[in-house]
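REVIEWER CHECKLIST
Item 1: Sequence provided? yes
Item 2: Single chain? yes
Item 3: Sequence as submitted:
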Amino acid sequence: MDSTGHIPAPLPTRGLLRFLTCGSVDDGKSTLIGRLLHDAGLVPDDQLAQVLRDSRGRTDEEGGIDFSLLVDGLEAEREQGITIDVAHRFFATDRRSFIVADAPGHEQYTRNMATAASTAALAVLLVDARKGLLTQTRRHAVVCSLMGIRHVVLAVNKMDLVGCDEAVFTAIAQAFADFAAPLGFATVTAIPLSARRGDNVVHRSAAMGWYHGPALLEHLETAAVEDGNALAGPLRFLVDWVNRPSPDLASDFRGLSGTLLSGRLAPGDAVTVWPSGQSARIARIVTFDGDRPGAQTGDAVTVTLEEAVDAARGDLLAGPAERPAETPEVADQFAAHLLWMAEEPLIPGRSYLLRAGARWVPATVTALRHAVNVETLEHSAATTLTMNAVGLCNLSTAAPLAFDAYAANRHTGSFILVDRFSNRTAGAGMILHPLHRAANLHRQELAVSAAERAAAKRQRPAVLWFTGLSGSGKSTVANRLERRLHALGHHTMMLDGDNVRLGLNRDLGFTDADRVENIRRVGEVAKLMTEAGLIVLCAFIAPFRAEREALRALFPEGLFLEVFVDTPLEECMRRDPKGLYAKARSGSLRNFTGVDSPYERPDAPDLRLDTTAEDADALAARVVENLRARGILGA
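Item 4: Structure as written out by the authors:
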C-alpha cells in the first residue's frame, strides 16, 4: 500500500519484450544495461562487489564505475581485436520479461547490430548528450526501420556531463524527430538520462526536474509494443528438413520438420505447399513426446500429410490456395531493401547465393534502383553499394520463391546474400513486393530440342571459355582451335571480347560492375548458341571467379569447360600486342586487368594451357584431343 493507505490495483503484466541497445561507439550502451539491472535489484550487491574487485578499479572516461562489466562477456575479445558479437541478456521484473541485445557501436560491426534488430520489437538508441546525433546514430535508426522495429527510445545519455541542461536534451530530441519522421516509427520516446549515475534509468531523477516523462525501465515495462516474432497472421510453416527414419528401420514415415512461424495447425487442416502449389491435409502433428492435437505460433514440430505431395526443405506450408488472403507471393523476381555487409562492394549482375529460410538458390541483383544517404535519407543514383550502405534493388532468383512482404512477416520476407566464392554473408535483404512482370513470362517449349540439333551435327553442344590476362593468347589459341574444328566438319561459333564490345556490349565500360554485366550477357548468348547445337568458343578475360562459376551453373554438367590460358603477367606485358599495358602503366588507361584491376586465377580449370611451353597450334591440337576424350566431338 502507499503512504495514504490505498491498496493500488495490480500492475498489468505484459509478455516478453525483445529490445536492443544501439548507437555509436562509447555512447554507453553496456553501461546502461548494467545500471538498469543493478538499480532494478536484478544484480545482487555481492555480485556487484565481486565485479568491482575483478575490474581492478576500471572506470569509464569520466571517472565513474563501468557497469558494462556486469553484462559484457566479450571484453577479452574486444581487447584482442577480434570480431565483436551481440551480447544477449534475459531478465524479468514484476511487470514484464525482457531479452536485451547489446549491439556493438563500431561501424564495421553494423552487420551484428542488424542481426539483433531483426528479432527486436523495440530499440533503445543511445546518444551522447555532448556529441548529439552522429552518422552511426542515424545509420542505426535507418537499420532499425528497415528491420521492422516500430518503437524507439531515444536515450540521451551522459546528461550529467552537460549540466543536465534541458535545452541540450530538447535540441537533440527535436533533431532526431525531424530525421526519423520518414522512417515510419510508430512511437519515438525521448528520455534524458545518465547511465553512470542512474538518473532516469530505473527511477526518475531530481537532477532533471524539468523532465516529466517515465524513467527508462518504467517505459519498457508499460510500452504497448506488439511482438514482431509472434505474428497472428495467416498460416506459415517453414520446412527446415524432411524427417525420414534411418534406412535400417522398416518404416515409411515421412515428416516435415520445422517451425510454425504464424497461425495455428491441427490434424485435418487443409494446407498448400509453396512454391509448388500442391494441396494436402495435415495427418499428424508429431513431437519427441508424442502426437499433439494442435500447434501454434513458435512451436517446432513435425507434421505429416495425408497426401503424397512433393514437399522439400525450404518449402512453405500456408492455408488453402483458394483463400488469396492466406497465400504467400510466389515469384523469381522481387524488389527489396538491401543492407550491404561485405567489404567487397555489391556488383549488380554478379551471381550470389540467396538464403531464404532453409532454402538456397542462386540470385543476382538485376538493378540497383537507388542508394539511401543515411545522413539525409535522400535517394541517389548508384551503381554499387559499399559496406554498411543501404539501397533499393531488384533481384532475380534461379527458381521461384514463396515469400511475404517483410512488413507483413519478418520471417518469410527476409533473406541473406552469400558470396559464392568466399562463402561469407554479403548482404541482408527485406522484401518489398514481387515484380509482376516476372509472372507474365513463360518459357516456350521448342519443337526441336538442343540434343536433336547437336545430333545432326555429330557433336555435343559445349562452351569452351578461354580465360587469362590480356595478351595471354586466348584469342589466338581459340581461333586456331576453331579452324581445326571447322576442318573436321564441326559446327562452331567464336565469341571474342573486342567483337562483342563493338556491338552487343558497346554500352559497357571497364568498371567491375560493367565487366560483370559484360560476362553475364555473353554467357546468355553462349547458352542460346548451345541450344542451337553449337560448340561455342569464348575468349574473354572474365577476371572474377564468381562470374566464371556463375557461367558454369548455366550449363549442364560437363558442357562448360574453363580453359585457363596461363601466361605470366611479365610475358603478357612483353608481348603487349595492342599497346594496352603501356597505356595502363602510364595512367592513361584505367581499370586494366593485371595492372590496377585484379585477375583471380582459376583454382581448378578444366584445362590449363601454357603458351610459354607450346605454340598455339600445338595447344589447339591438345584441346581437340581433350574434347574427343570427353565425348563432345563425334566420329
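Item 5: Key structural point noted by reviewer: Residues 512-531 form the longest helix (20 residues).
Item 6: Recommendation: ____
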